[in-house]
Write a structure and sequence with these properties.
single chain, alpha+beta, six-stranded mixed beta sheet, 42% helix, 28% strand, globular
Length: 122
């Protein structure tokens, strides 16, 4: 797949993920565009948090359902459903991080990837 087509597909997938998060009232949704960084591991990190274990799990379920409905993809890897402190959904080109607020504050992924292009979603 050409680089341009790949980035368009990644952009679209990141937007679908954001929609799935917003459907369950995720807090402070941020898209980090890692695609322009040298040696990046993915094109996007999409990060948010919920206010409870139940909401974090619901956000993850919504993201999976929206992506499956829109483009027919399931995550290549998923983890964190045991305690729902930090759920990760890996779609290769887009990696989704859904935190509980305290865990997000502790790990501060946005700071670790501060040189990435950042889009705050309202």
């Amino acid at each position: 797949m050409a680089k341009h087509a790949k980035s368009e597909a990644s952009d679209m997938l990141a937007d679908i993920v954001v929609h799935g998060m917003a459907e369950r009232k995720a807090q402070e949704i941020v898209k980090l565009n890692l695609g322009q960084l040298q040696n990046s591991i993915t094109d996007y990190f999409v990060i948010c948090h919920g206010t409870s274990r139940t909401q974090v799990e619901a956000i993850a379920d919504s993201v999976e359902a929206e992506v499956k409905k829109a483009v027919g993809l399931s995550p290549w890897h998923r983890e964190g459903f045991e305690n729902c402190e930090w759920i990760l959904l890996d779609y290769f080109d887009v990696v989704v991080h859904i935190f509980q607020a305290e865990t997000r504050s502790f790990y501060q992924l946005e700071r670790l990837w501060a040189d990435a292009g950042r889009t705050n979603v309202s």
